[in-house]
Amino acid sequence: MKRLKTIGWSDSKECVRLIDQTLLPEEIRYIYADNLDAMYHAIKVLQVRGAPAIGIAAAYGLYLGVRDFGGDEGDITAFLNYADERAAYLSTARPTAVNLFWAINRIKKFTHDNSAGAGDVNTLKKLMLDEAHRILDEDRKMCRAIGERGFELLKDKPCILTHCNAGGLATSEFGTALAPIYVGQEKGVTFKVFADETRPLLQGARITALELSEAGIPVTVICDNMSAAVMATGQVKACIVGADRIAANGDTANKIGTYGLALIAAAHNVPFYVAAPSSTFDLSIPDGTKIPIEERGREEVAFWGEKKTVPDKAEVFNPSFDVTPSKLITAIITEKGVIKPPYTENIVKILG
Ligand code: MRU
Question: How far is the CA of 175 from the centre of ligand 1 (A)?
Fold first, then answer.
């Protein structure tokens, strides 16, 4: 079984190694981000994508951003100001996945909290890199825990449908929505997976289908507009998706099309699960109406590769995410436990 690692630190090159996800599935090419601008660009153009992977990339990105601090070694205050400026810039890379802000804020707070003890700028930089390594390592553990918990919910549901890519390529290693499938594989339980292609950037077809098929898991790609017909056949026993940001009441932002899928699942009495680590919750936001939704460029919708598919005079609307109201979500699987309605109370109870 081959598992692709989308993000990691290269000790020999002293920079971050990423799989360029824009080239999948045709080519697995590694790119090396050795400065903040390279990492900003990689996040913006989706060379690295998926909420947890974006968080890890941001943590390393902020370290890369301060590595070039040119000021006085002993001037910790100037260094902290520089780090804050770099953090503010990196925060504008993408708006919806809260993991970006979660990771930046964690590194920022860590840097401020450790500034006095570190004594000099170089020591503080090294501590920041260690903290980024910890974020990656914790993500690995969180995804495995999600996989174990999710497997218990899904083990009697041998055929599932997923949207976008919330697998290993969207995280440190194991994925969120796909983690129960990988845990099942380790335990000798094979799931059959339907993967929505996920217009317009085809993360389901290009990325989910790639990682599952490479791992030897049966996967069937369908166009987004086929999921109702497939669910009507009765084959699909559960839907499971990832999340980019979960509000305090459980409303969940995820890749555009997730909301429609949740409505279709409800119409067919198919349970609809969200799998996400605690770093994807934003309890400062009361409900989904307040989640910022990224709008991306016209060209993603108006072209099929090189071919123009929309006339120039027609408008294009391209929101990259939608919000699934929590009433359509059967349960949210986190590393700390499975959260069931009523979400407002139970999210706080389980996440602590
Ligand atoms: O635009 P993308 O590809 O970054 O969107 C990714 C998703 O919507 C994923 O489902 C989500 O981030 C969860 S990844 C574990």
Answer: 11
C-alpha span between 292 and 91 (Å, rounded) = 13
For 295, which DSSP code? Answer: B
Which has the closest alpha carbon to 340: 352, 323, 326? 326
Number of CB atoms found within 10 A of residue 303's CB: 13
* Centroid of ligand 1 to alpha carbon of 187 (angstroms): 27
pLDDT of residue 263: 98
Angle at 174 between CA 237 and CA 98, to 5 degrees: 90
Residue among 244, 251, 282, 322 flagged as catalytic: 244
Residue closest via CA to ligand 1's atom 15 equals 166
Triad 6, 280, 126: Cα angle to 5°: 60
- What pTM, to 2 d.p., does this model score? 0.97
Q: Ligand 1 within 6 A of 242 CB?
A: yes
Q: Residue 48: CB partners within 8 Å, gap ≥ 6?
A: 6, 7, 18, 21, 42, 54, 57
* Residue 20 annotated to the active site: no
Q: 244: Cβ–Cβ under 8 A, 6 or more apart, which residues?
A: 51, 96, 97, 98, 99, 253, 254, 255, 280, 321
- Cα separation, 281 vs 286, whole angstroms: 11
Tokens of 42: 């990689």
Q: What is the 3-state secondary structure (H, E, C) of 90-131?
A: HCCCCCCCHHHHHHHHHHHHHHHHHHHHHCCHHHHHHHHHHH
pLDDT tens readout for residues 34-45:
999 999 999 999
Name the residue of 164, 178, 197, 199 to mutate for ligand 1: max ligand atoms within 8 A of Cβ: 164
**Which positions ≥6 away from 37 have C-beta within 8 Å?**
none
CA distance 43 to 37: 10
Bridge partners of 17, per DSSP, are 8, 32
Amino acid letter, 229: A
Q: How many of the other CB atoms lie within 10 Å of CB of 206? A: 21
Q: Name residue, tokens 């449908």.
A: 161
Mean pLDDT of 80-94: 98
Percent of the chain at pLDDT exceeding 90: 96
